[in-house]
Specification:
The chain is of the alpha/beta class. The protein is 27% helix and 18% strand. It folds into three domains: 329 residues, Alpha-Beta Barrel (TIM Barrel), CATH 3.20.20.300; 182 residues, Glycoside hydrolase family 3 C-terminal domain (Rossmann fold, 3-Layer(aba) Sandwich); 115 residues, Immunoglobulins (Immunoglobulin-like, Sandwich). The protein has 19 helices and 26 strands. Strands 11-16-15-14-12-13 form a six-stranded mixed beta sheet, with helices on both faces. Helix 6 packs parallel to helix 7 and helix 12 packs across helix 13. The structure holds alpha-D-glucopyranose.
Length: 742
């Protein structure tokens, strides 16, 4: 029996058609002023609702507030919008929840060192729960700018230098923040930022010019954003930076052609703070009216902090320079985000619906994240792990050994240092009365230039079996607008290391830092180096667990460590070049003969005063055991343009204790329509191996995985010969090869 079909299309009651109908219905009721009101994000904060803000909300002139985290005030803001404005449209409440809210996880660069998407997702989920309990429904994270210049302070907020790793972990953060259901309590809208190319700021100086050829933009800087869009990210933030002469906040190539037309993004685009007003400062417009026109035309839906839209969009429409349809499209993106968040149905926050801020399980997760973020860079003569049984005494030296605030890192507006446990505390708790702990700061801060604390530090070292130094940078030395032109250890830290080295004691260096540091002079003087980044609330216990072998380090570098600042930019997936440096051609400046004939030295790509290799390559990280790879193989031996291949290798734990290894898959396209990098990460797996265990690791590759943007700036797949590696670092040599065939 065929049921009579209702000839009228039934009103949708769910799904995207229903959502779009709700948007259309609301839009039809809105005046132009109310539409433009939705496009304004207004600074708030301080736990109160100023009269001017209340009035603006009542008049429908505010679509979002930023920086209010007092839940009673947030509920009052929402109540004012919902019950006292004409159409009752709830507010987006934005906050930078970058690597935790009250419970602070390692900085994103540290989390990236875990190479663990599930761990990163959990951290974002916990951060979302804590932030949502204070009424926040929108975070300005993940920051997924590819960063290859550690002079740039914002590398601390990034997930490192590689598009594949950044895309994988950035998408995990999106899933963590937004959950399975964006409208559920505890889910908040994520915001992929800063679109796009911000990490290429010239000289690593924040807010500086970026010049990125479109091919490089598409092959390196955009893939993580496309991955975030594919993961369903609710919003995108534009960058402050000038991109090839057109500031990102007014750049129709990236905001319209790529983001909307090519990727089909239907979420919300928000400017960065004041970045629309700054279009005139760039010299791209003559003033706010033109800035409003350029940013709105490019498709920036919401203006953060500055008020060019509020002041000029209506007159631009009345003057016929902007259509109401274009305004409607932008306002629809905002309303769609609010509907997806469920704000029209549940605009108010009930903290009792969410776990407590800094709940024990949150702190435990932060500790575990810190353990997996630690990277063992050097461990000569196996000075690590330390043994509380055999040690009589340990010296804990440095200004960062016992600072509950500094270990939290940058971008921790709501981080609560009362939950911090420092390394000194954790070491004391761990060893108890079995080992005597001698503590000295050595220098007051990492920037200090006096030596008044050296004697205490040397004395502590002389009284101890081993010296553990906590050195690096305070949180203020990285993050937004916190850049350094020389990324050696600041202040007198190297002199302190020299003084401690003179004692002849085993030296362990624990780096607390927001960026790679140039340690060429330092590394030969110490026996072990652990990079702890800024490890967050429970960084102390995590460091103690690794130092004393309770945990074996498993972190791998998400970013290259240069030997000296002058090598920057230096990164693993560089181009081959026509005359690469080689062991045969490299000559050190000190070895050049007097009056050497011009062509007798050099002639290939290297600097005279430093070896052309990095100090530590992308993907590097040691364990307390050792791993070996062999038998890399491809099955089938050729990849058909419509097929799939499996790349496998054997990995063996060749040591006497269990450990976790991150097996990494790299490819090289030997000949391309444009030159291709010498290696590109295309897969990774964390693999736990018991002592002496041997296991097969396998990855699949498709032609799509090997596609890239060629000369025509279109994505192409080209037949040809590929090299493929599986190993524990980007400098792996365990290689096979295959042909991609037509
Ligand atoms: C800042 C940052 C951006 C942040 C925003 C709101 O200037 O560039 O990452 O989300 O303003 O605080």
């Amino acid at each position: 029996m065929t049921e009579s079909m209702d000839t009228e299309q039934a009103e949708p009651t769910s799904g995207s058609a229903f959502l779009e109908e709700r948007i259309r219905t609301l839009l039809q009721q809105m005046t132009l002023e109310e539409k433009i009101g939705q496009m304004a994000q207004v600074p708030s904060g301080g736990g109160h609702l100023p009269h001017h803000l209340r009035e603006a909300i009542q008049r429908g002139q505010v679509g979002s507030v930023i920086n209010e985290v007092d839940v009673a005030t947030v509920n009052e803001l929402q109540r004012t919008a919902v019950e006292e404005s004409r159409l009752g449209i709830p507010l987006l409440v934005g906050r930078d929840v970058i690597h935790g809210f009250a419970t602070v996880f390692p900085i994103p660069l540290g989390q990236a060192a875990s190479w663990n998407p599930r761990l990163v997702e959990l951290g974002a989920r916990i951060a979302a729960h804590e932030a949502a309990s204070r009424g926040v429904n929108w975070t300005f994270a993940p920051m997924i700018d590819i960063s290859r210049d550690p002079r740039w302070g914002r590398i601390a907020e990034s997930l490192g230098e590689d598009p594949f790793l950044t895309g994988s972990l950035g998408s995990a953060m999106v899933r963590g923040f937004q959950g399975e259901d964006l409208s559920a309590p505890g889910s908040i809208a994520a915001c992929a930022k800063h679109f796009a190319g911000y990490g290429a700021s010239e000289s690593g100086k924040d807010y500086n010019t970026t010049n990125i050829p479109e091919g490089e933009l598409r092959n390196v800087y955009l893939p993580p954003f496309q991955a975030a869009v594919d993961a369903g990210v609710a919003s995108i933030m534009t960058s402050f930076s000038d991109l090839n002469g057109v500031p990102a906040t007014a750049n129709t190539l990236i905001l319209q052609q790529i983001l909307r037309d090519e990727w089909g993004f239907d979420g919300l685009v928000v400017s960065d703070w004041d970045s629309i007003h700054q279009l005139a400062v760039h010299g791209f417009t003559a003033g706010d009216r033109d800035s409003a026109f350029e940013a709105a035309t490019a498709g920036v839906d919401m203006e953060m902090a500055s008020q060019t839209y509020a002041h000029h969009l209506a007159s631009l429409v009345h003057d016929g320079r902007m259509t109401i349809e274009h305004i409607d499209t932008m306002v629809s993106n905002i309303l769609r985000t609010k509907f997806r968040l469920g704000l029209f149905d549940t605009p108010y926050t009930d903290p009792s619906m969410l776990p407590d801020i800094a709940a024990p399980e949150h702190l435990a997760a932060a500790r575990h994240a810190a353990v997996e973020s630690l990277v063992l860079l050097k461990n000569d003569v196996r000075v690590l792990p330390l043994s509380a049984e055999s040690l009589a005494s340990v010296a804990v030296i440095g200004p960062l050994a016992d600072d509950p605030q500094e270990q939290l890192g940058t971008w921790i507006f709501d981080g609560d240092a009362r939950h911090s446990v420092t390394a000194l505390q954790a070491i004391r708790d761990m060893v108890g009365d079995r080992v005597t702990v001698h503590h000295a700061r050595g220098v007051d801060t990492t920037r200090s230039h006096d030596r008044s604390g050296f004697d205490d530090a040397v004395r502590a070292a002389e009284q101890s079996d081993v010296v553990v130094m906590f050195l690096g940078e305070e949180a203020i030395l990285s993050g937004e607008a916190h850049c350094r032109a020389d990324i050696a250890l600041p202040g007198n830290q190297e002199a302190l290391i020299d003084a401690l080295a003179a004692t002849g004691k085993p030296l362990v260096l624990v780096l607390m830092t927001g960026r790679p540091l140039a340690l060429e002079r330092v590394v030969p003087k110490v026996h072990a180096v652990v990079c702890a980044w800024h490890p967050g609330s429970l960084g102390g216990p995590a460091i103690a667990d690794v130092l004393f072998g309770v945990e074996s380090p498993s972190g791998k570098l998400p970013v290259t460590f240069p030997r000296v600042t002058g090598q920057i930019p230096i990164y693993y997936s560089h181009k081959h070049g026509g005359k690469p440096g080689t062991p045969e051609t490299f000559v050190h400046i000190d070895d050049i003969q007097a009056r050497a004939p011009q062509l007798s030295v050099g002639n290939t790509s290297f600097h005279f005063d430093v070896h052309y290799s990095p100090l530590y390559p992308f993907g590097h990280g040691l364990s307390y055991t050792t791993f070996e790879y062999d038998s890399v193989r491809v099955d089938p031996p050729e990849l058909a343009v419509s097929g799939t291949i499996t790349v496998s290798a054997e990995v063996t734990n060749t040591g006497d204790r269990d450990g976790t290894e991150v097996a990494q898959l790299y490819v090289r396209d030997l000949v391309g329509n444009v030159t291709r990098p010498v290696k590109e990460l295309k897969g990774f797996q964390r693999v736990f191996l018991a002592a002496y265990e041997r296991r097969t690791v396998s990855f699949t590759l498709t032609p799509e995985d090997l596609s890239f943007f060629g000369r025509a700036n279109t994505r192409i797949v080209e037949p040809g010969r590929f090299h493929v590696w599986i190993g524990g670092s980007s400098d792996t040599q365990t290689r096979a090869e295959f042909d991609l065939t037509d």
